[in-house]
Amino acid sequence: MPEPAHSAQTLTTLDARPPCLATIEALPAGERTVVTCRGEFDVGAQELQPELYAVLDHSATGVDLDLDEVRFCDCGGLNVLLSLRREALDQGKTVTVRAYSPTVGRLLELTGARELFVTEHSARPEGPGAPAAGPVPGPVPGPRGPAPVVEEQPGPVDVDQELRLEVDQLRRAMRTRPAIDVARGIVMASFGLSAEDAWTVLVTASQNTNTKLHELAQELMGAIHGAAVPEQVQQQMASAVAKVREQGQDQQGPDQQAPPPPAA
User: Fold this and answer.
1) Residue 209 backbone phi and psi in degrees, to 5
2) How far is residue 52's CA from residue 47's CA, in Å, rounded to a whole number?
3) How many domains is the chain partitioned into structurally?
4) β-strand 62-73 against 32-41: which pairing, if any?
5) What CATH number does residue 91 fall under?
6) Which one in 156, 175, 190, 235 has a CA-CA gap of 20 to 30 Å to 244?
7) Is residue 213 within 8 Å of residue 203, measured between CB atoms?
8) Pairing mode, if any, of strands 22-29 and 62-73?
9) Which residues of the chain have pLDDT under 50?
10) Is residue 67 part of a domain?
């Protein structure tokens, strides 16, 4: 039976912490546990850490994360996942990501953290047509053919190297997160967008201009102090804003109309 999902926490006047807008549901699957995550994974998702650690403790070999229903994720949410992975390494277990939404995929790609959650277990194809796990056989010898070729198996994972890479990723995330959060606020205020739509605009402009997300954020922050934003960035930002507004109008339907953007 799946474990009960974690309910979203409400923010009270006595608790200044950000609310948790995410839920998890754990389902044992043999020696591993599949954890389905839903909602928004931001800094408020830190409230889920004790529950995630408990799920990890009860699993034999580790946890497989299903992030397909996570509609928003920032560096705060990524740090929660990285913390769970670090705890798993301390226990000799693994944490993999078996599925993720486009929003999570973009974050993993931009931060370079995707490789940290991909292992032989998570990368192996599944389904009725998937090949069986195990080494790939070499050529079959004939009556006078050569001896079978046995492929060399990959060596053990260098845990120290993985930990160093994870530390580098965490340091980079903590250095760039403030600028990215400020830039998202600028986009929200300038175009009257939600936090999720503003994040989509930033990521889309970053990809289309081949600019690192934190570098794009610095350019937008510089514009507040009078610095010029490259024309290509301006065009891609305008295009991304128009796209998310169009998608929002399509979801609202013909009888609803989005409010006009605030005056510049």
Assistant:
1) -105, 5
2) 10
3) 2
4) parallel
5) 3.30.750.24
6) 175
7) yes
8) unpaired
9) 6-15, 120-145, 147-157, 258, 261-264
10) yes
70-95 pLDDT, tens per residue?
999 988 888 899 999 999 888 888 99
Residue 81 lies in a domain: yes
Q: What is the pLDDT of residue 110?
A: 84
In this structure, the answer to whether residues 30 and 100 fall within a common structural domain is yes
Q: How many residues in the chain?
A: 264
Residue 125 tokens read as 């194809």
- Non-local (6+) Cβ contacts of 28 within 8 A are 34, 58, 59
Q: How far apart are the first and last CA of the chain?
A: 53
Q: Is position 140 within any domain?
A: no
Q: Could you tell me the pTM of the whole model? A: 0.46
- What are the E-state strand segments in the chain? 22-29, 32-41, 62-73, 94-100
CA distance 46 to 131: 38
Query: Residue 14 has which token pair?
Result: 């006595």
Of the residues 123, 145, 166, the one at which a domain ends? 123
Note whether 25 and 101 are same-domain residues: yes
Q: What is the pLDDT of residues 156-194, one digit of tens each?
A: 445 566 666 666 655 665 566 677 888 888 888 888 888
Domain that holds residue 53: 14-123
Q: Can you tell me whether residue 68 is helix, strand or coil?
A: strand
